[in-house]
Amino acid sequence: MVVLGGMTRLTRSGLSMTNWKFTGRLPPLTNEDWLVEFEKYKQSPEYKRVNKISIDDFKFIYWMEYAHRMWGRALGIVFALPFYDFLCKGYITLQLGFRLSGLFALGARQGLIGWWMVKSGLEEPASKYAEPRVSPYRLAAHLTSAFVIYSGLFWTALSIVMPEPPAKSVSRDKGAAKVKRLAVLGAFLVRITAVSGAFVAGNDAGRAFNTFPKMSDTWVPEDILNMKPLLRNFFENTSTVQLDHRIRTTMTLAAIGGLWCVLLSSNNPRWRALSQLSGQFLRMIAFVTLGVSTLQSYVPVSLGTAHQAGALTLLSLMLLLNHTVRRPSMSLLKTLPPVVKTVT
């Protein structure tokens, strides 16, 4: 769903459907229906100013957006029906039931956020020179919400598969707590970097500077603080938004690399085993390389989509690491011996 959403944005498909019923609707089925929908799109600011396309091209972006919206409804059904079945059979505990209900509610809210986002792109821009696009704030909210839902689903699944973390003694659990602090920092940086990436997409900042590591012929563009108040620069100024994303990516790369080195150099067998998981540092290098390639290629659909999918994959690995080193429950801690001797 996240990948499809990225493709929808990159192909300029998001604003192709100018109205939408909450209960959904059938797609155009006849030539007359397509002409009606195309005429509605012709009245939109996007068509008038930047995207005067043929009806055949319109059909493509319409199908992209239609698939994105209907996929969301399909996800709701795929989630709700088994949930109801498992609930009736008594497979779901009260705590898990509340968690799953909350995730379902977030999924329903995501649809509303999506339409709220699209609506901003159907309004006339304040300036006749401004390019029609959805609000970067609303796009960031939509993408962030998708990442939150995915994180909740993934963490819940891990908790069902592994109710307790692997722990053999209280002393080793305390050791894992040290690793956890580094893992939490890494996961936090991945999240805020992904959010900054949403503002890059929302402001179309990825196409503003297509060189790396410099931005054109300078390290810091002169116009990074042009907007007033100053805080707006970090969310709306294309130069500042892209520079901010580059800095956050570098910080994330350094943090994950440091975590990997700490685990790899440890004498603790469990820590060294975790270093295999934190070897995602190497994946992070590939992810950064992919981002640079996307930038230098003027953000093609294929690389842009892969870049977004890579961010979600990296977040998954960080969630898995955090879940593995989480603190055991008190009931498990009471059963653990203070020290476990290693036989050589």
Gist of the model:
The chain is mainly alpha-helical and 344 residues long. The protein is built from 13 helices and no strands.
Would you mind describing this structure in some detail?
- The protein contains 13 helices and no strands.
- It folds into two domains: 1-161, no CATH class; 166-337, no CATH class.
- The radius of gyration is 23 Å and the shape is flat.
- The protein has 344 residues and is mostly helical.
- 68% of the residues lie in helices and 0% in strands.
- It has helices at 2-10, 31-42, 45-49, 55-88, 94-121, 136-161, 170-202, 233-236, 238-264, 269-277, 280-296, 301-324, 330-335.
Question: What are the SSEs and their pairings?
Answer:
Elements: H1 2-10, H2 31-42, H3 45-49, H4 55-88, H5 94-121, H6 136-161, H7 170-202, H8 233-236, H9 238-264, H10 269-277, H11 280-296, H12 301-324, H13 330-335
Helix pairs in contact: 1-4, 1-12, 4-5, 5-6, 6-7, 6-12, 7-9, 7-12, 9-10, 9-11, 11-12
The first-to-last residue Cα distance is 49 Å
Gyration radius (Cα, Å) is: 23 Å
Order of helices and strands: HHHHHHHHHHHHH
Summing up helix and strand content along with how strands pair, one would put the structural category as: mainly alpha
**β content, as a range?**
under 5%
Q: Give the fraction of residues assigned to helices.
A: 55-70%
Number of domains: 2
User: Residue-averaged pLDDT, rounded?
Assistant: 84
Q: Tell me, what's the shape?
A: flat
**Which sheet architecture does the biggest sheet show?**
none
What low-confidence regions span 5 or more consecutive residues with pLDDT below 50?
A: 340-344
DSSP summary, beta strand count = 0
| Number of H/I helices | 13
Keywords: Heme biosynthesis, Iron, Membrane, Metal-binding, Oxidoreductase, Transmembrane, Transmembrane helix
InterPro entries: COX15/CtaA_fam, HemeA_Synthase_type2
Pfam families: COX15-CtaA (PF02628)
Main location: membrane
